Protein backbone atom coordinates (compact mmCIF):
# COMPACT_ATOMS: atom_id res chain seq x y z
CA UNK A 1 0.00 0.00 0.00
CA UNK A 2 1.58 3.30 -1.01
CA UNK A 3 0.69 6.89 -0.24
CA UNK A 4 -0.89 7.25 -3.69
CA UNK A 5 -2.81 4.00 -3.62
CA UNK A 6 -6.52 4.72 -3.30
CA UNK A 7 -7.21 1.22 -2.11
CA UNK A 8 -6.85 1.75 1.62
CA UNK A 9 -8.21 -0.59 4.25
CA UNK A 10 -10.82 2.08 5.11
CA UNK A 11 -11.92 2.41 1.47
CA UNK A 12 -15.38 1.51 0.36
CA UNK A 13 -15.04 -1.11 -2.33
CA UNK A 14 -18.63 -2.05 -2.80
CA UNK A 15 -21.68 0.13 -2.33
CA UNK A 16 -23.61 -2.71 -0.77
CA UNK A 17 -21.03 -3.85 1.75
CA UNK A 18 -20.68 -1.75 4.88
CA UNK A 19 -18.82 -2.86 7.97
CA UNK A 20 -20.93 -3.62 10.99
CA UNK A 21 -19.44 -3.63 14.47
CA UNK A 22 -21.29 -5.47 17.19
CA UNK A 23 -20.67 -4.75 20.85
CA UNK A 24 -22.58 -7.07 23.13
CA UNK A 25 -25.99 -6.98 21.40
CA UNK A 26 -25.64 -3.53 19.79
CA UNK A 27 -24.63 -3.20 16.13
CA UNK A 28 -23.11 -0.09 14.56
CA UNK A 29 -23.44 0.31 10.81
CA UNK A 30 -26.53 -1.86 10.34
CA UNK A 31 -30.11 -0.77 9.80
CA UNK A 32 -30.50 0.53 13.36
CA UNK A 33 -29.32 3.91 14.60
CA UNK A 34 -27.31 3.55 17.81
CA UNK A 35 -27.85 6.23 20.45
CA UNK A 36 -24.94 6.60 22.87
CA UNK A 37 -25.76 8.84 25.84
CA UNK A 38 -24.41 9.80 29.23
CA UNK A 39 -22.50 12.48 31.08
CA UNK A 40 -19.45 14.25 29.72
CA UNK A 41 -17.51 12.97 32.73
CA UNK A 42 -18.18 10.27 35.28
CA UNK A 43 -18.63 12.35 38.45
CA UNK A 44 -19.71 9.80 41.04
CA UNK A 45 -21.52 6.46 41.08
CA UNK A 46 -24.92 7.74 42.20
CA UNK A 47 -25.18 10.39 39.48
CA UNK A 48 -23.92 7.99 36.83
CA UNK A 49 -26.51 5.39 37.91
CA UNK A 50 -29.30 7.98 37.75
CA UNK A 51 -28.28 9.20 34.30
CA UNK A 52 -27.88 5.65 32.96
CA UNK A 53 -31.31 4.61 34.27
CA UNK A 54 -32.99 7.58 32.60
CA UNK A 55 -31.25 7.38 29.23
CA UNK A 56 -31.76 3.63 29.01
CA UNK A 57 -35.47 3.99 29.76
CA UNK A 58 -35.72 6.60 27.00
CA UNK A 59 -33.99 4.44 24.38
CA UNK A 60 -30.21 4.93 24.60
CA UNK A 61 -28.37 1.64 24.22
CA UNK A 62 -24.73 2.57 24.91
CA UNK A 63 -23.54 4.50 28.00
CA UNK A 64 -20.86 7.17 27.68
CA UNK A 65 -18.81 8.76 30.46
CA UNK A 66 -15.33 10.26 30.48
CA UNK A 67 -12.78 9.30 33.13
CA UNK A 68 -9.73 10.89 31.51
CA UNK A 69 -10.81 14.37 30.45
CA UNK A 70 -8.46 16.27 28.17
CA UNK A 71 -9.39 19.77 29.32
CA UNK A 72 -8.15 22.98 27.74
CA UNK A 73 -7.28 24.42 31.15
CA UNK A 74 -5.15 22.37 33.57
CA UNK A 75 -7.30 23.84 36.38
CA UNK A 76 -10.53 22.30 35.06
CA UNK A 77 -11.83 18.95 36.36
CA UNK A 78 -9.62 16.28 34.81
CA UNK A 79 -11.81 13.24 35.48
CA UNK A 80 -11.72 10.46 38.07
CA UNK A 81 -9.22 8.39 36.08
CA UNK A 82 -9.18 4.69 37.05
CA UNK A 83 -11.92 5.23 39.64
CA UNK A 84 -14.14 6.69 36.91
CA UNK A 85 -13.52 3.71 34.64
CA UNK A 86 -14.51 1.36 37.46
CA UNK A 87 -17.74 3.30 38.13
CA UNK A 88 -18.65 3.35 34.44
CA UNK A 89 -18.06 -0.39 34.11
CA UNK A 90 -20.20 -1.12 37.20
CA UNK A 91 -23.05 1.13 36.01
CA UNK A 92 -22.92 -0.33 32.50
CA UNK A 93 -23.16 -3.80 33.98
CA UNK A 94 -26.02 -2.81 36.29
CA UNK A 95 -28.06 -1.53 33.34
CA UNK A 96 -26.78 -4.09 30.83
CA UNK A 97 -25.44 -1.33 28.59
CA UNK A 98 -22.17 -1.46 26.68
CA UNK A 99 -19.91 1.44 27.69
CA UNK A 100 -17.65 3.93 25.93
CA UNK A 101 -14.97 6.15 27.45
CA UNK A 102 -12.06 8.21 26.15
CA UNK A 103 -8.55 6.81 26.36
CA UNK A 104 -5.73 9.33 26.24
CA UNK A 105 -2.55 7.27 26.65
CA UNK A 106 -1.14 3.87 25.77
CA UNK A 107 -0.40 3.23 29.44
CA UNK A 108 -4.16 3.25 30.18
CA UNK A 109 -5.04 0.35 27.87
CA UNK A 110 -5.04 -2.35 30.58
CA UNK A 111 -7.25 -0.29 32.88
CA UNK A 112 -9.88 -0.05 30.10
CA UNK A 113 -10.38 -3.83 30.03
CA UNK A 114 -13.98 -3.52 31.30
CA UNK A 115 -14.90 -0.69 28.92
CA UNK A 116 -16.53 -1.95 25.72
CA UNK A 117 -15.64 0.83 23.24
CA UNK A 118 -12.53 2.99 23.45
CA UNK A 119 -12.92 6.59 22.32
CA UNK A 120 -10.04 8.50 20.77
CA UNK A 121 -10.83 12.17 21.29
CA UNK A 122 -10.44 15.02 18.83
CA UNK A 123 -7.18 16.10 20.47
CA UNK A 124 -5.61 12.67 19.99
CA UNK A 125 -6.77 11.92 16.45
CA UNK A 126 -3.19 12.13 15.22
CA UNK A 127 -1.52 10.54 18.23
CA UNK A 128 -0.15 7.87 15.93
CA UNK A 129 1.54 5.84 18.67
CA UNK A 130 -1.79 5.58 20.50
CA UNK A 131 -3.60 4.65 17.27
CA UNK A 132 -1.08 1.88 16.53
CA UNK A 133 -1.35 0.54 20.08
CA UNK A 134 -5.17 0.51 19.85
CA UNK A 135 -4.82 -1.24 16.52
CA UNK A 136 -3.24 -4.13 18.37
CA UNK A 137 -6.29 -4.51 20.62
CA UNK A 138 -9.57 -6.11 19.58
CA UNK A 139 -11.87 -3.50 21.14
CA UNK A 140 -14.00 -1.28 18.92
CA UNK A 141 -12.45 2.18 18.64
CA UNK A 142 -14.58 5.31 18.15
CA UNK A 143 -12.22 7.72 16.42
CA UNK A 144 -13.17 11.39 16.58
CA UNK A 145 -12.18 13.87 13.92
CA UNK A 146 -9.81 16.54 15.21
CA UNK A 147 -11.27 20.03 15.16
CA UNK A 148 -8.55 21.16 12.74
CA UNK A 149 -8.36 18.03 10.64
CA UNK A 150 -9.68 17.19 7.21
CA UNK A 151 -11.86 14.22 6.36
CA UNK A 152 -8.91 12.68 4.55
CA UNK A 153 -6.74 13.00 7.66
CA UNK A 154 -9.46 11.35 9.76
CA UNK A 155 -9.53 8.43 7.34
CA UNK A 156 -5.74 8.11 7.40
CA UNK A 157 -5.86 8.01 11.20
CA UNK A 158 -8.44 5.23 10.95
CA UNK A 159 -6.03 3.50 8.59
CA UNK A 160 -3.36 3.42 11.32
CA UNK A 161 -5.71 1.39 13.54
CA UNK A 162 -6.88 -0.88 10.73
CA UNK A 163 -3.33 -1.46 9.46
CA UNK A 164 -2.20 -2.49 12.95
CA UNK A 165 -4.81 -5.25 12.89
CA UNK A 166 -7.99 -3.92 14.51
CA UNK A 167 -10.88 -3.83 11.98
CA UNK A 168 -13.37 -2.35 14.46
CA UNK A 169 -13.21 1.38 13.81
CA UNK A 170 -16.19 3.73 14.15
CA UNK A 171 -15.67 7.20 12.67
CA UNK A 172 -17.03 10.22 14.53
CA UNK A 173 -17.60 13.77 13.27
CA UNK A 174 -17.70 16.16 16.26
CA UNK A 175 -17.43 19.56 14.61
CA UNK A 176 -14.50 21.53 13.29
CA UNK A 177 -13.17 24.96 14.15
CA UNK A 178 -14.32 27.64 11.71
CA UNK A 179 -14.61 31.46 11.78
CA UNK A 180 -18.15 31.13 13.21
CA UNK A 181 -18.06 31.94 16.95
CA UNK A 182 -21.74 31.34 17.75
CA UNK A 183 -21.25 27.62 18.16
CA UNK A 184 -18.35 25.90 19.92
CA UNK A 185 -17.47 24.16 16.64
CA UNK A 186 -19.20 23.88 13.27
CA UNK A 187 -20.83 20.51 12.62
CA UNK A 188 -19.66 19.37 9.20
CA UNK A 189 -22.81 17.54 8.21
CA UNK A 190 -21.40 16.90 4.75
CA UNK A 191 -18.81 14.67 6.42
CA UNK A 192 -21.54 12.03 6.83
CA UNK A 193 -22.27 11.32 3.14
CA UNK A 194 -18.61 11.91 2.25
CA UNK A 195 -17.35 9.40 4.82
CA UNK A 196 -20.05 6.96 3.74
CA UNK A 197 -18.98 7.35 0.11
CA UNK A 198 -15.25 6.94 0.83
CA UNK A 199 -15.39 4.33 3.57
CA UNK A 200 -17.27 1.20 4.63
CA UNK A 201 -16.84 2.08 8.33
CA UNK A 202 -19.79 3.17 10.54
CA UNK A 203 -20.20 6.92 11.10
CA UNK A 204 -21.39 8.52 14.34
CA UNK A 205 -22.18 12.21 14.87
CA UNK A 206 -21.53 14.10 18.11
CA UNK A 207 -23.85 17.11 18.11
CA UNK A 208 -23.02 17.98 21.72
CA UNK A 209 -19.38 18.98 21.27
CA UNK A 210 -20.01 20.42 17.81
CA UNK A 211 -22.65 22.86 19.00
CA UNK A 212 -21.64 23.48 22.60
CA UNK A 213 -25.23 24.41 23.47
CA UNK A 214 -28.00 22.03 24.50
CA UNK A 215 -30.77 23.52 22.38
CA UNK A 216 -28.91 22.85 19.14
CA UNK A 217 -28.41 19.17 19.92
CA UNK A 218 -31.89 18.10 18.80
CA UNK A 219 -31.95 19.76 15.35
CA UNK A 220 -28.37 18.66 14.65
CA UNK A 221 -29.20 15.09 15.69
CA UNK A 222 -32.19 14.99 13.35
CA UNK A 223 -30.05 16.39 10.53
CA UNK A 224 -27.33 13.82 11.20
CA UNK A 225 -29.72 10.89 11.02
CA UNK A 226 -31.39 12.32 7.91
CA UNK A 227 -27.93 12.61 6.31
CA UNK A 228 -27.19 8.93 6.94
CA UNK A 229 -25.35 8.77 10.27
CA UNK A 230 -25.28 5.36 11.93
CA UNK A 231 -25.36 6.72 15.44
CA UNK A 232 -25.29 9.68 17.80
CA UNK A 233 -23.03 10.46 20.75
CA UNK A 234 -24.94 12.68 23.17
CA UNK A 235 -24.09 14.31 26.48
CA UNK A 236 -26.98 13.97 28.93
CA UNK A 237 -27.12 14.88 32.62
CA UNK A 238 -29.83 14.73 35.27
CA UNK A 239 -28.78 18.24 36.41
CA UNK A 240 -26.87 19.92 33.55
CA UNK A 241 -26.32 23.03 35.67
CA UNK A 242 -24.38 20.94 38.21
CA UNK A 243 -22.31 19.06 35.62
CA UNK A 244 -18.56 19.18 36.32
CA UNK A 245 -17.87 19.72 32.63
CA UNK A 246 -19.67 20.75 29.44
CA UNK A 247 -22.91 21.57 31.29
CA UNK A 248 -23.97 24.11 28.65
CA UNK A 249 -24.26 21.42 26.01
CA UNK A 250 -25.70 18.66 28.19
CA UNK A 251 -29.29 17.66 27.50
CA UNK A 252 -31.55 17.29 30.51
CA UNK A 253 -33.19 13.89 30.61
CA UNK A 254 -36.52 15.43 29.55
CA UNK A 255 -34.88 17.12 26.52
CA UNK A 256 -33.25 13.79 25.71
CA UNK A 257 -36.70 12.18 25.76
CA UNK A 258 -38.04 14.84 23.38
CA UNK A 259 -35.11 14.26 21.07
CA UNK A 260 -35.74 10.50 21.02
CA UNK A 261 -39.43 11.07 20.21
CA UNK A 262 -38.48 13.32 17.30
CA UNK A 263 -35.81 10.92 16.06
CA UNK A 264 -38.09 7.94 15.38
CA UNK A 265 -39.97 9.40 12.38
CA UNK A 266 -36.75 10.86 10.90
CA UNK A 267 -35.01 7.48 11.18
CA UNK A 268 -38.01 5.76 9.62
CA UNK A 269 -38.10 8.32 6.79
CA UNK A 270 -34.57 7.30 5.75
CA UNK A 271 -35.25 3.59 6.10
CA UNK A 272 -33.67 3.16 9.54
CA UNK A 273 -34.97 2.53 13.01
CA UNK A 274 -33.71 3.22 16.49
CA UNK A 275 -31.77 0.44 18.21
CA UNK A 276 -34.05 -0.48 21.04
C1 LIG B 1 -15.84 13.98 24.81
O1 LIG B 1 -16.51 13.26 24.05
O2 LIG B 1 -16.02 14.02 26.01
C2 LIG B 1 -14.80 14.87 24.24
C3 LIG B 1 -13.87 15.43 25.02
O3 LIG B 1 -14.91 15.07 22.94
P1 LIG B 1 -13.94 15.75 21.86
O4 LIG B 1 -12.69 14.91 21.85
O5 LIG B 1 -14.73 15.63 20.60
O6 LIG B 1 -13.70 17.16 22.27
MN1 LIG C 1 -17.76 16.79 26.92
Describe this structure in words.
The chain is of the alpha/beta class. The model has no long low-confidence stretch (mean pLDDT 96). The chain has eight helices and eleven strands. Helix 1 runs parallel beside helix 2 and helix 7 runs parallel beside helix 8. The structure holds phosphoenolpyruvate and manganese (II) ion (MN). Manganese (II) ion binds next to loops.
Write the layout of secondary structure elements.
Blueprint: E1 21-23, E2 26-28, E3 32-38, H1 45-57, E4 62-64, H2 82-94, E5 99-102, E6 117-120, H3 128-135, E7 141-144, H4 151-163, E8 169-173, H5 191-198, E9 203-205, H6 207-211, H7 214-226, E10 231-235, H8 253-269, E11 273-274
Parallel strand pairs: 3-4, 3-10, 3-11, 4-5, 5-6, 6-7, 7-8, 8-9, 9-10
Antiparallel strand pairs: 1-2
Helix pairs in contact: 1-2, 3-4, 7-8
The structure holds phosphoenolpyruvate and manganese (II) ion (MN).
Provide key terms for this protein.
276 residues, 11 strands, binds phosphoenolpyruvate, alpha/beta, single chain, two-stranded antiparallel sheet, binds manganese (II) ion, globular, eight-stranded parallel beta barrel
Amino acid sequence: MTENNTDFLYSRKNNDISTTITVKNITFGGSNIVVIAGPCAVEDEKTTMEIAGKVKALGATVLRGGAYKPRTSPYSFQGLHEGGIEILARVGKAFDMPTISEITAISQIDSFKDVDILQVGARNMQNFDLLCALGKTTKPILLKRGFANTIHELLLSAEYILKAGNPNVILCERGIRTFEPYTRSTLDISAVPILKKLSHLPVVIDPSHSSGVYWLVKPLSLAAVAAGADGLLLEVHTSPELSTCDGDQALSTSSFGELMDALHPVANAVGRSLHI
